[in-house]
Amino acid sequence: MLSSVADLLLTELLESRREVMGADYVGYKNHCRRMVAFCLALQPCTEEEQQKVAIAACFHDIGLWTAKTWDYLPPSVLAAVKYLKNCNGESWAEEITLMITEHHKLNTFTDARYPLVEAFRRADIIDVSLGLLTFGLPRAFISEVKAQYPNAGFHKALVRMALAWFVRHPLNPAPMMKW
Question: What is the mean pLDDT of residues 152-164?
Answer without folding.
Answer: 82
